[in-house]
């Protein structure tokens, strides 16, 4: 088991300890963070994790009532910004406000995302494809953008993108979601290389299955599923280690690594029978 865990760590960047990570240093306890999608699931769990560690958090999401609930739990520690990550001027305004109070954040986590089953044969799914790409990919770019120059100037900070194991291969019935997460991973890699040597780190986190409202609607088996709090704890550990790429949980990293190497003549017939995500839910 230990050898498999090590293999996972060396090859997959398992939960923060991949080969590429060795070049990066540890990130001390963050004092301030920006987290998009902090109203629910992984984003909420990450916000709670860091708030319990004493950090100040800027929480982005559309459901302001849920952000206020979080703020009531941690008085004086949460800056709530009710916004849509597709709205660049709103994020710019939030970033300016937060930095005027708290300074340049130590970490910005672009976590907001949506998942929905899509099929090319349905014309009405075109709009869903558009939304998924706009939120999961461009929303990430728009979340980082207002902090990029300030972090560069400060020569420190970490930009964290939440991608997915679903971006490792094209999953049937999830064309938009898989494509958005593959795009997010490539974008994050470009950003990481662009920022190499600047003092600003970029961390890509690929969750496997995490128990959140996003997965609560799935009726198919979800191997190695983790509670959101435990997932947040592991993600924070990967960020703290300065991992460049991390899969949580590591078992899904190993699965993803094997899947990536599966030839199409095996992958196609096996995965054509895989359960599809429902097209009816957001
Ligand atoms: N759960 C998993 O198994 C899993 C696996 C792999 C990757 N992920 C990724 O992890 C991230 C979090 O997912 P989750 O499972 O925690 O799902 P979730 O519970 O549905 O949370 C999604 C979060 O994103 C926010 N969001 C969605 N669209 C937004 C928009 N246009 N503007 C601002 N905020 C928006 C939501 O807030 P509002 O609705 O209030 O705006 C919510 O806080 C996503 O990127 C997802 O793709 C999850």
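^ Assign residues to that structure.
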């Amino acid at each position: 088991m230990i050898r498999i865990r090590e293999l996972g760590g060396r090859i997959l960047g398992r939960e923060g300890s991949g080969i590429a990570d060795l070049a990066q240093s540890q990130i001390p306890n963050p004092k301030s963070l920006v987290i998009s999608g902090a109203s629910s699931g992984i984003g909420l769990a990450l916000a709670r994790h860091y708030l319990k560690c004493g950090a100040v958090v800027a929480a982005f999401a559309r459901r302001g009532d849920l952000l206020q609930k979080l703020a009531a739990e941690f008085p004086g520690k949460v800056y709530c910004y009710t916004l849509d990550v597709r709205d660049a001027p709103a994020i710019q305004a939030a970033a300016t406000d937060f930095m005027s109070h708290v300074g340049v954040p130590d970490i910005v986590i672009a976590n907001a995302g949506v998942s929905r089953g899509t099929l090319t044969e349905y014309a009405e799914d075109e709009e869903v494809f558009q939304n998924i790409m706009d939120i999961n990919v461009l929303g990430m770019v728009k979340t980082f953008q207002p902090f990029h120059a300030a972090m560069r100037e400060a020569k420190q900070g970490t930009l964290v993108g939440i991608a997915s194991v679903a971006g490792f291969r094209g999953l049937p019935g999830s064309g938009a979601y898989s494509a958005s997460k593959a795009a997010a991973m490539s974008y994050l890699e470009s950003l990481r290389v662009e920022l190499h040597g600047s003092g600003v780190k970029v961390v890509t986190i690929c969750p496997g299955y995490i128990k959140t409202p996003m997965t609560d609607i799935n009726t198919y088996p979800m191997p190695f599923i983790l509670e959101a709090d435990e997932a947040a704890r592991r993600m924070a550990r990967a960020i703290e280690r300065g991992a460049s790429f991390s899969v949580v949980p590591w078992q899904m990293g190993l699965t993803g690594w094997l899947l990536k190497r599966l030839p199409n003549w095996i992958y196609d017939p096996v995965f054509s029978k895989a359960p599809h995500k429902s097209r009816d839910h957001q």
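Strands lie at 32-36, 56-61, 78-82, 107-110, 158-162, 201-207, 210-211, 226-227, 245-248.
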